[in-house]
Amino acid sequence: MLIADTVIFLLMIKNTKMPDSMFLYRDHRGSLVDSMKTVREMLTFNELKNHIESIHGEGEIVVKEYCYDGRIKWNTHIVTHDGKAVGFTNGHVEKE
Predict the structure, then answer these.
(1) Is 28 within a domain?
(2) What is the pLDDT of residues 20-58, one digit of tens each?
(3) Domain that holds residue 41
């Protein structure tokens, strides 16, 4: 059942048109399935920063281009906290 739920979720994300300012963020996990369970919508860099710092403490948050992931159709950007990978977004996130 877990795999079926994940497939349905991935299809929903793939076919969803979001506002230009909105992006998806997922935490770094051991597998794509586990990582996708953490997906959340965000509107701003500050929202992303607050989320990450609530888990990892204060630090330098950097979002940079990483790769295209055909499995989930994301133009993936890696998110680091003090140089350590903590998650990924489905596109560029503009710093405010």
Answers:
(1) yes
(2) 669 999 999 999 999 999 999 999 999 999 999 999 999
(3) 2-89
